[in-house]
């Protein structure tokens, strides 16, 4: 390949959409970003407008190419990465959503999950999907849409019953990767990592599971075809008469956290990364073995290349890390995220304050849907600097909770953890993370590893890159952080954190 061709990646996240153009060295050539509206129609509900996301996707692709003077024909392929679990239903004929997308953070189906627990369905779901039953995943979101989209009388919904039309394949289901690929190519497909997050896909049989479809009353006719993450046959091509004006193959897709695993070149068993975004997601490659967790982690699919076995991963999903920093802005304790490091350094400690940012419950390894955000240990002398520092420390403590579970399940003691995401630009947080976990933190030069992972998957499929070794050679370290805190002190503070977590649990109950 020459230097005059590139690979593009659509990175559709919780708060916005980015398009990044990469060259053969895995370097960023151009990128553009657009936020979308966060909708909270009721307490615990979180929605996005799928049409807004698609319009933003077109806009950032066009803008990124234009800024760099790159013609669409210079794109060898496009990869897609996406916020996982977020669920969309749309009309197969018109491509119009029947309702807003229900976001992964949404808790409206909490009671449905509790009924499954009461009915003894947890172990069957866990054994088939590797997931801990939770409102976080797509199955109960899709079920809710099928039952409630018509009664809500959304303007987009057609008069006929949504469920009846879904059973005829006239209404389609997808996570955001499917929604974008459908709009880019006209094909209704997903890939294995996103399928593995729906709570409808058997990660051992690598197929939609009939018993799970029956449990959640999801018609098979509405489901997408499941393809490899890096697909030599491609998912389809963009319409040369469409917005891009060229036929570009879409050949790779990965859920955002698996994309970061791939972009961090965690190709071997034991390789691990943590991505700090709205939430944090800690994944460890376990190879061709689907390792069952005894410590509250998820068994998930890491990636699959065409014609090769699936690579599995253990995952610890933390719901609120970057969201905790956003909360500090929401309540005017900071004006922008970059202030957190300075404010945190201005005090020697949190002065006994602990923040548990369980705004939408607790994920791994606790899995408490009814936990809520808590601040404990405040005195009359508590200042905003203590609360800001305690919020940063909460990110490190939550990550340690998952790291300990990961080591217990895998039997592998980590010597280093690769990190990425917006928050890792904060050197104070990276050092704090190293201190609290007691391991080396490694930050790469290219921190857009989520987009890079989907670009790698797509580029491998069309031969832009030859093999995994070539991708490893692209990976470069920006900075490493080694533990400086006394180990006993780190243990003592983490134990106190665990006590604060206990006080946040089982809080959200009906208050009528």
Automatic annotation (TrEMBL):
<feature type="binding site">
    <location>
        <position position="85"/>
    </location>
    <ligand>
        <name>sn-glycerol 3-phosphate</name>
    </ligand>
</feature>
<protein>
    <recommendedName>
        <fullName>Glycerol kinase</fullName>
        <ecNumber>2.7.1.30</ecNumber>
    </recommendedName>
</protein>
<feature type="binding site">
    <location>
        <position position="136"/>
    </location>
    <ligand>
        <name>glycerol</name>
    </ligand>
</feature>
<feature type="region of interest" description="Disordered">
    <location>
        <begin position="486"/>
        <end position="512"/>
    </location>
</feature>
<dbReference type="InterPro" id="IPR000577">
    <property type="entry name" value="Carb_kinase_FGGY"/>
</dbReference>
<feature type="binding site">
    <location>
        <position position="322"/>
    </location>
    <ligand>
        <name>ATP</name>
    </ligand>
</feature>
<feature type="binding site">
    <location>
        <position position="426"/>
    </location>
    <ligand>
        <name>ADP</name>
    </ligand>
</feature>
<dbReference type="GO" id="GO:0019563">
    <property type="term" value="P:glycerol catabolic process"/>
</dbReference>
<keyword id="KW-0808">Transferase</keyword>
<keyword id="KW-0547">Nucleotide-binding</keyword>
<feature type="domain" description="Carbohydrate kinase FGGY N-terminal">
    <location>
        <begin position="6"/>
        <end position="263"/>
    </location>
</feature>
<feature type="binding site">
    <location>
        <position position="136"/>
    </location>
    <ligand>
        <name>sn-glycerol 3-phosphate</name>
    </ligand>
</feature>
<dbReference type="InterPro" id="IPR043129">
    <property type="entry name" value="ATPase_NBD"/>
</dbReference>
<feature type="binding site">
    <location>
        <position position="257"/>
    </location>
    <ligand>
        <name>glycerol</name>
    </ligand>
</feature>
<dbReference type="InterPro" id="IPR018483">
    <property type="entry name" value="Carb_kinase_FGGY_CS"/>
</dbReference>
<feature type="binding site">
    <location>
        <position position="84"/>
    </location>
    <ligand>
        <name>sn-glycerol 3-phosphate</name>
    </ligand>
</feature>
<feature type="binding site">
    <location>
        <position position="14"/>
    </location>
    <ligand>
        <name>ADP</name>
    </ligand>
</feature>
<feature type="binding site">
    <location>
        <position position="15"/>
    </location>
    <ligand>
        <name>ATP</name>
    </ligand>
</feature>
<dbReference type="InterPro" id="IPR018484">
    <property type="entry name" value="FGGY_N"/>
</dbReference>
<comment type="function">
    <text>Key enzyme in the regulation of glycerol uptake and metabolism. Catalyzes the phosphorylation of glycerol to yield sn-glycerol 3-phosphate.</text>
</comment>
<feature type="binding site">
    <location>
        <position position="278"/>
    </location>
    <ligand>
        <name>ADP</name>
    </ligand>
</feature>
<feature type="binding site">
    <location>
        <position position="278"/>
    </location>
    <ligand>
        <name>ATP</name>
    </ligand>
</feature>
<comment type="pathway">
    <text>Polyol metabolism; glycerol degradation via glycerol kinase pathway; sn-glycerol 3-phosphate from glycerol: step 1/1.</text>
</comment>
<keyword id="KW-0319">Glycerol metabolism</keyword>
<dbReference type="InterPro" id="IPR018485">
    <property type="entry name" value="FGGY_C"/>
</dbReference>
<feature type="binding site">
    <location>
        <position position="85"/>
    </location>
    <ligand>
        <name>glycerol</name>
    </ligand>
</feature>
<feature type="binding site">
    <location>
        <position position="256"/>
    </location>
    <ligand>
        <name>glycerol</name>
    </ligand>
</feature>
<keyword id="KW-0418">Kinase</keyword>
<keyword id="KW-0067">ATP-binding</keyword>
<feature type="binding site">
    <location>
        <position position="18"/>
    </location>
    <ligand>
        <name>ADP</name>
    </ligand>
</feature>
<feature type="binding site">
    <location>
        <position position="422"/>
    </location>
    <ligand>
        <name>ADP</name>
    </ligand>
</feature>
<feature type="binding site">
    <location>
        <position position="84"/>
    </location>
    <ligand>
        <name>glycerol</name>
    </ligand>
</feature>
<dbReference type="GO" id="GO:0005829">
    <property type="term" value="C:cytosol"/>
</dbReference>
<dbReference type="Pfam" id="PF00370">
    <property type="entry name" value="FGGY_N"/>
</dbReference>
<dbReference type="InterPro" id="IPR005999">
    <property type="entry name" value="Glycerol_kin"/>
</dbReference>
<dbReference type="GO" id="GO:0005524">
    <property type="term" value="F:ATP binding"/>
</dbReference>
<dbReference type="GO" id="GO:0006072">
    <property type="term" value="P:glycerol-3-phosphate metabolic process"/>
</dbReference>
<feature type="binding site">
    <location>
        <position position="14"/>
    </location>
    <ligand>
        <name>sn-glycerol 3-phosphate</name>
    </ligand>
</feature>
<feature type="domain" description="Carbohydrate kinase FGGY C-terminal">
    <location>
        <begin position="273"/>
        <end position="461"/>
    </location>
</feature>
<comment type="similarity">
    <text>Belongs to the FGGY kinase family.</text>
</comment>
<feature type="binding site">
    <location>
        <position position="422"/>
    </location>
    <ligand>
        <name>ATP</name>
    </ligand>
</feature>
<dbReference type="GO" id="GO:0004370">
    <property type="term" value="F:glycerol kinase activity"/>
</dbReference>
């Amino acid at each position: 390949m020459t230097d005059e061709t590139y690979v593009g990646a659509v990175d559709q996240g919780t708060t916005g959409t980015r398009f990044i153009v990469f060259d053969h060295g895995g370097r960023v050539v151009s990128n553009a970003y657009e936020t979308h509206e966060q909708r909270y129609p009721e307490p615990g509900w979180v929605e996005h407008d799928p049409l807004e996301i698609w319009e933003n996707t077109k806009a950032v692709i066009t803008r990124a190419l234009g800024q760099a003077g790159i013609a669409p024909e210079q794109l060898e392929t496009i990869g897609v990465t996406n916020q996982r679990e977020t669920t969309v239903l749309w009309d197969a004929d018109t491509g119009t959503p029947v309702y807003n997308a229900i976001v992964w953070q949404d808790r409206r189906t909490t009671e449905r999950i509790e009924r499954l627990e009461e009915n003894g369905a947890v172990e069957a779901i866990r054994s088939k999907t590797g997931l801990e039953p939770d409102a976080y995943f797509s199955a109960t979101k899709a079920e809710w849409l099928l039952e409630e989209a018509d009664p809500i009388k959304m303007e987009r919904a057609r008069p006929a019953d949504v469920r009846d039309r879904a059973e005829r394949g006239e209404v389609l289901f997808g996570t955001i990767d499917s929604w974008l690929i459908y709009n880019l190519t006209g094909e209704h497909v997903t890939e294995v990592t996103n399928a593995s997050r729906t709570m409808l896909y058997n990660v051992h049989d690598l197929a939609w599971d009939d018993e799970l479809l029956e449990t959640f009353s999801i018609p098979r006719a509405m489901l997408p075809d499941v393809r490899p993450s890096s697909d030599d046959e491609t998912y389809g091509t963009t319409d040369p008469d469409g917005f891009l004006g060229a036929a570009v193959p879409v050949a790779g897709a990965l859920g955002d956290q698996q994309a970061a695993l791939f972009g961090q070149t965690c190709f071997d068993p034991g390789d691990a990364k943590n991505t700090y975004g709205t939430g944090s997601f800690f994944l460890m490659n376990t190879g061709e073995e689907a390792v069952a967790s005894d410590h509250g982690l998820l068994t998930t699919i890491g990636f699959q290349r065409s014609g090769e076995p699936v690579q599995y991963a253990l995952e610890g999903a933390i719901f609120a890390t970057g969201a905790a920093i956003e909360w500090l802005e929401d309540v005017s304790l900071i004006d922008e995220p970059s202030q957190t490091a300075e404010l945190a350094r201005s005090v020697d400690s949190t002065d006994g304050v602990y923040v548990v940012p369980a705004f939408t419950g607790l994920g791994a390894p606790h899995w408490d849907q009814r936990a809520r955000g808590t601040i404990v240990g405040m005195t009359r002398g508590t200042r905003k600097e203590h609360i800001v520092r305690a919020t940063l420390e909460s990110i490190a403590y939550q990550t340690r909770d998952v790291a300990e579970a990961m080591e217990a399940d895998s039997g592998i003691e980590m010597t280093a953890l690769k990190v990425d995401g917006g928050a890792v630009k904060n050197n104070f947080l990276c050092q704090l993370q190293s201190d609290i976990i007691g391991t080396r933190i490694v930050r790469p030069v290219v921190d857009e590893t989520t987009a890079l992972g989907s670009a790698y998957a797509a580029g491998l499929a069309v031969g832009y890159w030859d093999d995994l070794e070539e991708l490893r050679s692209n990976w470069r370290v920006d900075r490493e952080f080694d533990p400086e805190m006394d180990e006993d002190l780190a243990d003592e503070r983490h134990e106190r954190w665990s006590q604060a977590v206990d006080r946040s649990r089982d809080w959200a109950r009906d208050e009528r």
